[in-house]
Amino acid sequence: MSVWVRKSVMAAVAVAAVCASGSVFAVKPPAETEGESSDVAAQREAYYALRRMNPYDSNFDSAKARLQAYNQFQQVLLARSTGIVLPGPVHTESWQSIGPAPITLGQTPTNATATSRSPVSGRVSSLAIDPIDNAVYAGGAQGGVWRTRNNGASWTPLTDFLGSLAVGTIVVAPGTHPLNQATLYLGTGEGNFSGDSYGGVGIYKSTDSGHTWQGPYGQAQFGNRSVATIAVDSANANHVLAGSTSGIFGVGGVLGPTLPVRGIYISNDGGATWAISASLSAHARISKIVQDPVVPTIWWAGVSLIAPASGGGLLKSIDNGATWSAVDGVATGLPAIVGANGVSGIARTWLSVSSGGASSVIYLGVSVVTSPGKGGRLYVSTDSGATWTNKPAADGYCQGQCWYDMPVYSPPETTTTVFTGGAGSSGALPSSFMRSTDSGGTFVDKMVGIDGNSALHADFHAITSWPGQPTHIWVGNDGGVFHSDDNGDHWISANTTLQLTQFEGCDLHPTDPSQAYGGTQDNGTDSFLGSTAWTHSDDGDGGFALIDQGTPTNVTHTYFNQSNYLIGAAVALNGPASGPADYLYFSGDYVPGGQNNGINPADNVLFYAPMALDRGVHDTLYFGTDHLYIAPSFFANTVAATNTSIVYTALNGGGGFAPPVPPSTFPGAISAIETIANVVPGSPANTILVGTSNGRVWRSTNAGTSFTETDMTPLVIAQYVSSIVVNPRNPNNVFQSRAGFTGAMPAHNVRVSNDGGATWTDASNGLPDIPVNSLAFDPVFSNQIWAGTDIGMYLSADGGATWIPYNQGVPNVAIFSVKANGHTGNVLTCTHGRGAFLLKLDTIFIDGFDGN
């Protein structure tokens, strides 16, 4: 979740930006703001919520809807495999995984002593180690479970086609087992409280080291939630405890009343059935459950912020998990359980428990509601939880992001060593990753290896050690998996074949089939240059990413966008091969730098603002807030940017596009932009189409002078317009996709126009009630169109009349962007959690198919 933007000193930038003529040319924002302010985090949350809206005023269960959609997907595939003839594609090709695995020279610190960046992949939410099989298991935020048996040199995905790839926890049952017969528990639903922390479908179990899986179990107890922690009784393998917390199915959205109660659940039959502990208050968010290593009938649980006056913080059971009581903070030295206003004073907790001989040693990470505790505090007990001592040296260890990343870990063999992980920077304390060898008395920064040749990514979610080897440390963070053989003094990136990148948008090179370009969550903007090892192109959050289809050495992308702070796009002129140093200019509005290129800084704007290049004049850029802006000669002006600003001009007479849709009182923002190429060569489009986050579609036929609203889905909710695409062979044939759940069939998640966007009808027959995020026309067959959904890929072989699944190598994961290219015959799909996949078609249809 760290926000990384370009390096420079603002005072120097402000001076340097004013040239002799007095014009302000495009500059770049400052480099590394590791950690995310609350307003930036809130805007990110709002963005994902809009993309996954559901009928919030009903009993609609989006978890059930998604599982039904997944089952429908699988049933159709099964019917096709058994010979039942269904409407289907002529294509027989399979999608090829193209990475990133890894992203080279990734977004890891270059300050402090680091001299080289480390390879990265994507967000890892959980780690588990099985020394018998010599296996490490990693759980991706939306990438499923992966296994390595060679210390991270290579990885194998194990759960690509389960009902959910969002991992809350992965656990190896304790005790001995034959080779390849470890018992694993997979809790689905990511529990990190981010806007794109997908909810789950329950718990899966494997008894053969992840080769096969049974479940999901506990759908009624865990559906649409996150199972963030599972603990197996060391004395009774059938006795299993699980803790659930918030999980939002399909990210964001308003949670309906059908959600199961959060809390501690118990199974006495190895996970087949589950019942909640009756002693808990309703809706307790459980972040961690651990069994006491000294007295195994004692269990500990960390509780996050829960209902007013109902307690929180640390829970203890002395009867094997049957009943629980809150540990009294006032009496023991912990923060008060309940604040003066009657609300739980503890927002989130994290536990690590080891044996100290006669007593257990417990480390407790705490985020309290009031400052300065929001940045994280560390407490330790050496007498089995009777008394606690605060360790001030760790104060602020999760830097205000404890809701997202705050793990604490002490290797069981060395109870005086403790590690903390969170947000923040490197080179100063508190840092993102710290180590103490004196029980938390003092800490040192361990983000960067002592030789300066290795570094960790920020935002930590998992820390563990190899059993019996307390200095062999493994960590999972927003950049993937890393491990150290010397207690964190040196780091090894274990991301070589780990494909977990969360894309936001991507694009294809117009003529070179081995080049692509995409923006990612917390791993910058990156480039495919023919190898599964992608190159890191630019820092920051990456959003929309575009390649100039006329001059592919021109590329542009967005970072995050925030009103009255940062709105606009970065530019480079070395194509996808551009590196961070090549992005010399930021074009847009950057309030701290005093830069305004014509965009109103007060505009309502999406966290990832859409932009598009004109289909006819590729050097003309359109950029969307709640207004539509045009920047002619966008790249040409970049070349001359030492004297000339890139200037954006508002279209539609300066009018907005996203007034509230009653009964809502909240305005929207532009979410999709498309143009129909002008028949006059060299002239920008006359027909421009825009879609908004609150379900509106607008059309101009006079080059943007004025717009007319042409479509708003007639349903109970105003679905987010996620993409608009024009048929390259027939400009009157236009499709739009809608993201969100409607609770109705048809879901109206794909709509079609045959008069250039003037009127629209439903075209979603065969699609389940699931968010559709992106569309692309097939580059080979003229009547076919691809749809990227929250559960994988669909294809229509009859112009949108019907749809069928076409995964063939693409996992059950949210697809955020689909692009097709008629010159190379490629279709690119970029997922939010499993990287990118390429379909290389056998026949190339060039005539009438212009680019992607």
From TrEMBL:
TM spans (from-to): none
Signal peptide: 1-26
Family annotation (Gene3D superfamilies): YVTN repeat-like/Quinoprotein amine dehydrogenase
Keyword S-adenosyl-L-methionine applies: no
Keywords (A to Z) from UniProt: Signal
Keyword set includes Cell inner membrane: no
Protein name: Exo-alpha-sialidase
Organism: Dokdonella soli
Highest classification ranks of the organism: Bacteria, Pseudomonadati, Pseudomonadota, Gammaproteobacteria, Lysobacterales
